[in-house]
């Protein structure tokens, strides 16, 4: 009995001592690093249980285990060879000066259409293999200035169209290796779902952040047009394009967004955000935001897949339980069937002009016009190394884009000058009529297609849930909502009005906390040594 008392007393003294000394293990919880939010990673940095160097190594270990081994996800095009060295320098800086921002020491992966001064920017194309940009894209520079570590450039639909690339080949879905990971930001979706990094970047012209986010079961945001800069991103159609964050939580998306905002003299579109952007969107996150919210439920996107319908219905019930009022909304039939055609009247003519502007920044060995890209594509007839080869699906679109007409043609003018403002007026009308805070709908009509089938589809036409966000320029947040019978992710879209990111992030966060419907893909399980200690709140 005396021995027990002595042992208990020693334990109490040890605990008290560890608390007084601020020991890293005091009242800490063990979690997998790829399931931790940026707030939890920063808490571990602060407690001394994690360093940027260790975090980068954990990310590199997962890439090594899963990208060209194991399930062979094939998401990474190039790795930053200096990532560990940069991480060590940032660890020293943290000790001496403190962190620069919440992303200090946080690894980031990005679609390979963002310019990076220290890594090639290829658009996923053999036509731009080895291309070194003269400087960083504005969004990349903001991340670096905040202390983020640019870890990898990842695969995409070539030149941001489609599902694979001639340089990176076909990425695989970590939930089901036979199904498409989505396009065109598929590599980012795969990488974030597989735990390659806490933050990813994609671009979205008609759904290219939102599609891969839903298919890979992660959070994604297409911001308001003009909230983030286009500078240094290979364009598809600047009237529609937006870069944005893709992460495993709404919190992390809010963190990343705030780091990258700001007026950019090189992009006149960002002037629209003056007085409307924030540098910290986490301040708006509220687990109770759904209470009292008025949510417009777009009822036009049901009946395509019974599993998707069921998950969406369950999501609506969760919103109601959290205190939201649901209001049914139906788009006019003419809009449902013309929205995609309007987008396809804008994108190809813009690409033809804008890709030539971008190619002016490349070296003399690269093509300078779309016509030159077409001619050079015919020179590739055999497979190269590591998945590189021809990409007839995308290269056929070069012809469509080249023959799409001019920016002075009536079809383009009607869609751009009248169709886009009309779309904006229509959606704003729904918000005003019923005093809505957001519109919600299933992001995808049905579960993802088999890879072979996805690469046979052609662009243009048909009902789309996502093109409304590009035609209006309005922000859309994707949040995981559940899974189909065959364990494939389903997500919900929160569409807001221009520069309403604070509101839709709050609503999405509230929904996320109520449902917690995200989980690790079956083909990328935890690896040994991935647990980190995070102090309890």
Structural class: alpha/beta
How many distinct domains? 1
- How many helices in DSSP terms? 16
In one word, what is the shape? Answer: globular
Q: What is the CA–CA distance across the termini?
A: 36 Å
Order of strands side by side in the largest beta sheet?
A: 2-4-3-5-7-6-11-12-10-8-9
Q: How many individual β-strands?
A: 13
**Mean pLDDT, all residues:** 94
CATH topology: Amidase signature (AS) enzymes
Find the CATH superfamily.
Amidase signature (AS) domain
Topology:
Blueprint: H1 2-21, E1 28-32, H2 38-47, H3 52-66, E2 76-79, H4 83-97, E3 107-111, H5 138-145, E4 149-154, H6 186-193, E5 199-204, H7 210-216, E6 219-222, E7 242-247, H8 250-260, E8 294-298, H9 306-321, E9 325-329, H10 333-359, H11 370-377, H12 392-402, H13 410-434, E10 438-442, H14 451-454, H15 467-472, E11 476-483, E12 489-495, H16 501-515, E13 531-535
Parallel strand pairs: 3-4, 3-5, 8-9, 8-10
Antiparallel strand pairs: 1-13, 2-4, 5-7, 6-7, 6-11, 10-12, 11-12
Helix pairs in contact: 3-4, 6-7, 10-13, 11-12
Description:
This protein is an alpha/beta fold and 537 residues long. It has a single domain (30-519), classed as Alpha-Beta Complex (Amidase signature (AS) enzymes), CATH 3.90.1300.10. The protein is built from 16 helices and 13 strands. The chain has helices spanning 2-21, 38-47, 52-66, 83-97, 138-145, 186-193, 210-216, 250-260, 306-321, 333-359, 370-377, 392-402, 410-434, 451-454, 467-472, 501-515; strands spanning 28-32, 76-79, 107-111, 149-154, 199-204, 219-222, 242-247, 294-298, 325-329, 438-442, 476-483, 489-495, 531-535. The strands form two sheets. It has an eleven-stranded mixed beta sheet, sandwiched between helices. Helix 3 (52-66) packs antiparallel against helix 4. The radius of gyration is 23 Å and the shape is globular. It starts with a helix and ends with a strand.
């Amino acid at each position: 009995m005396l021995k027990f008392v002595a042992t208990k007393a020693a334990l109490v003294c040890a605990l008290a001592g560890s608390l007084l000394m601020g020991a890293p293990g005091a009242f800490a919880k063990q979690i997998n690093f790829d399931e931790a939010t940026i707030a939890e990673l920063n808490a571990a940095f602060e407690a001394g249980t994690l360093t940027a160097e260790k975090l980068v190594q954990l990310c590199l270990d997962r890439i090594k285990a899963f990208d060209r081994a194991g399930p062979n996800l094939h998401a990474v095009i190039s790795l930053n060879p200096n990532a560990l060295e940069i991480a060590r320098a940032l660890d020293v800086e943290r000790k001496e000066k403190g962190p620069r921002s919440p992303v200090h020491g946080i690894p980031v992966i990005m679609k390979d259409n963002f310019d990076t001064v220290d890594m090639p920017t290829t658009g996923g194309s053999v036509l731009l293999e080895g291309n070194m940009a003269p400087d960083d894209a504005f969004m990349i520079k903001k991340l670096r200035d905040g202390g983020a570590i640019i870890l990898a450039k990842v695969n995409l639909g070539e030149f941001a169209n489609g599902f694979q690339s001639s340089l990176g080949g076909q990425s695989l879905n970590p939930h089901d290796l036979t199904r498409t990971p989505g396009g065109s930001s598929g590599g980012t979706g795969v990488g974030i779902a597989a735990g390659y990094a806490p933050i990813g970047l994609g671009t979205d012209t008609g759904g290219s952040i939102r599609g891969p986010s839903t298919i890979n079961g992660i959070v994604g945001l297409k911001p308001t047009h003009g909230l983030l800069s286009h500078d240094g991103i290979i364009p598809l159609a600047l009237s529609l394009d937006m870069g944005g964050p893709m992460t495993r939580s709404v919190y992390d998306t809010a963190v990343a967004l705030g780091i990258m905002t700001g007026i950019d003299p090189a992009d006149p579109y960002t002037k629209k955000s003056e007085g409307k952007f924030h540098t910290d969107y986490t301040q708006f996150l509220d687990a109770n935001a759904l209470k009292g919210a008025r949510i417009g439920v777009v009822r036009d996107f049901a009946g395509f897949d019974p599993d998707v319908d069921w998950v969406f219905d369950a999501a609506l019930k969760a919103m109601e339980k959290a205190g939201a009022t649901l209001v049914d909304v139906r788009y006019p039939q003419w809009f449902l069937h013309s929205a995609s055609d309007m987008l396809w009247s804008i994108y190809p003519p813009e690409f033809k002009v804008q890709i030539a502007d971008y190619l002016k920044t490349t070296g003399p060995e690269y093509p300078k016009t779309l016509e030159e890209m077409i001619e050079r594509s015919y020179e590739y007839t055999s497979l190269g190394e590591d998945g590189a080869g021809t990409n007839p699906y995308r290269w056929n679109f070069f012809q469509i884009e080249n023959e799409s007409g001019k920016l002075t043609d009536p079809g383009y003018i009607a869609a751009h000058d009248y169709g886009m403002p009309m779309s904006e007026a229509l959606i704003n009308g729904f918000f005003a009529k019923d005093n809505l805070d957001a519109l919600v709908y299933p992001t995808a009509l049905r579960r993802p297609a088999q890879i072979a089938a996805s690469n046979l589809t052609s662009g243009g036409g048909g009902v789309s849930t996502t093109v409304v966000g590009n035609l209006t320029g309005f922000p859309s947040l994707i949040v995981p909502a559940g899974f189909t019978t065959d364990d494939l992710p389903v997500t919900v879209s929160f569409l807001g009005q221009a520069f309403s990111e604070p509101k839709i992030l709050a609503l999405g966060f509230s929904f996320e906390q109520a449902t917690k419907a995200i989980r690790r893909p079956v083909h990328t399980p935890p690896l040994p040594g991935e647990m980190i200690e995070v102090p309890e709140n």
